[in-house]
Amino acid sequence: MSQRKRVAHAGSQNRVPRVSRQVVLDEDDDGDASYTQPTSSQVQKARENYTPVQVDRKVAEVVQFILIKDQKKIPIRRTDIVKHVIKEYKALYQDIMKRADRIFEQVFGLKLVEIDAKNHIYILINKLQPVPGEPISMCPGNPKTGLLFVILSVIFMKGGTVKENVVWNTLKKLRVDVGEKHEEFGDVKKVVTEEFVRQKYLEYLRIPHTEPLEHEFRWGQRAEKEVSKMKVLEFVGELHSQEPQSWTQQYREATSGESSQR
Amino acid sequence: MSESRRRVSRGSQEESAAHTNGVGGRSRSERAADTGDEDEGAGPSGIHEEDDDPARRREIRSQYRDLINSVQQNREDMLNPANNKLIDVLEEANKLFANVRQAREAALDAQLLVLATDLGREKASQLHAEGSSFDPSAFAEHLLSFMGLNRLEEEEDDQEGLDGYLPPDAWQKLSKRAEHCFKTAPSFHYLLGSFLAEPPPPRQRVERQRKAPSKEAKRMMPTQLKKMEESHQEATEKEVERILGCLRSYYADDPESPISYYEFVVDPASFSRTVENIFHTSFLIRDGLARIYLDSEKLPCIAPVEDGEIEPSGNATRHQCVISISPSTWKEIIEAFEIKQALIPTVQMLTQEG
């Protein structure tokens, strides 16, 4: 395949030297996988160079790559997709991703979401609404989801930002002591401040000018996309036997969140 | 600077507490009086002598620290909207500040101010929240009930303040319900398992790197070892032969007088040469090329065995013994036998002579 490409490039070299120089530069970039926006002529050329079957195959590879990467729920970076899968098809990046996204939506019921437009980081979220009364999956629940829910709901109910001590104190009441090893979660502090942060469920930020050092929690970008504030509020209301509307401010935020996502 | 900040913080505090008491306005006027005092006290002329009294300053600092400690320790209590403890603390700080004249105390005042402002902000946020307030502790209690906490049963290792029994599937239960709030994509798994998600290439690279040097090492090792062994053996053999030559020439010079073993072996200039000589001479004895016997004074003497005397069957008369020598015994021997010169010349000496 790459030979075909090179032959094609060699052929064009004689006629259009300027374009060929660009192509050579691009090939040097392959190593560090930096992605540069291809020119429309490059895209055009790439479309001509690869057969539809080849491109289909690339799309399938990208889909599989993202599905496997998502197993650990660590956001997927564009540089990784380009470096490991797309490689010399780089000029067709936009085409391939658009088609991969369509496959996620139509075949898997998932949605590929770019959570960071600057660094191009993607996550997968579920597009399908759970059927009321039906279990979401046959697998036993991952207990970490519960832990995460507690933290996210405390942050949300406290107005979006919460000092770490509030979280640790709440967890302690739930028999989860940060200082001790928990039988289900292991090193709780590590799970919360490293795993959840890496997965972009939480942000763990230093509060400036604090002595001793203090940190605060916020919702991470994945949480913003993946977690429904309204559903959190409903569940919190259910727990308190209170109407979600009784938390006026939170209710307002949850409704605006729902409408902006639709 | 600290002055203006204090005003600001008081302002916000008053807002939050205005409906509960009327202290705010009064305290502000007091405050103004305080600052007036201060201006008189610490005029442009500088620090008065009475202001620099170390005992007094120490007392002020200690009071500040106590106050800061009590604020830190009773944080939750002070946040409670039902009381005015924060105001009380600020009143007290104002009283203390009236006597503050120097930067070190003022710094403590500023530290307390930071704490108080922080508490004030949090208190204000409680009031600001429209509708119901949210209390994480109450939330935790509700969650525990949801998770199936049995408050009647005692936890085996009962921790302070926590009673009741939490079933082992508590977090599972919460997770199952919480999942409804998440639009998490179900993660994808192969039915029959899969290879590790990590790509194998890096592992291969490591193997290749390991293989390459090991092959080379295998090729190198035997030649290197052979050489070392050969040269070592050769050196020993040569040395043994050289010593035999020495012994024979001394014997030939004067076959009648016995050669003292110690005089023969000891090199007065070098302990290590002495040990080497003993080592090499032992080969002569082992191979039956020399013999050791005791003279009339029971001192060991050495003599070469003449070719005709070699008796292959005379093994039965052979004895073994271990000779030990230390630098101190070596020195004693040199003194006792008055050894001035080595009987076995060193290799260097030989080459010089040659």
What does this 3D model show about the protein?
The complex is a heterodimer of chains A (262) and B (354). Chain A is mainly alpha-helical. Chain A has 2 domains: 4-126, MAGE homology domain, winged helix WH1 motif (Arc Repressor Mutant, subunit A, Orthogonal Bundle), CATH 1.10.10; 143-261, Orthogonal Bundle (Arc Repressor Mutant, subunit A), CATH 1.10.10.1210. Chain A is 56% helix and 12% strand. Chain A is built from 12 helices and 8 strands. In chain A, strands 1-3-2 form a 3-stranded antiparallel beta sheet. The longest helix of chain A is centred in the first third of the chain and has 18 residues, at 52-69. Chain B is mostly helical and 354 residues long. Among the domains of chain B are: 54-129, no CATH class; 258-308 and 318-337, no CATH class. In chain B, strand 2 (290-294) and strand 3 form a beta hairpin. In chain B, helix 1 (2-17) packs parallel to helix 6. The longest helix of chain B has 53 residues, at 201-253. The model of chain B is unreliable at 1-45 (pLDDT under 50). The interface between A and B is large, with 59 and 42 residues.
Global geometry of chain B = elongated
Low-confidence stretches of chain B: 1-45
CATH superfamily heading of the largest domain in chain A: MAGE homology domain, winged helix WH1 motif
Q: Rg of chain A from C-alpha positions?
A: 23 Å
Using the coordinates shown, work out and report the CATH topology of the largest domain in chain A: Arc Repressor Mutant, subunit A
- Provide the residue-averaged pLDDT of chain B: 72
Tally of helical runs of chain B:
13
Structural class of chain A: mainly alpha
Under the CATH scheme, the architecture of the largest domain in chain A is Orthogonal Bundle
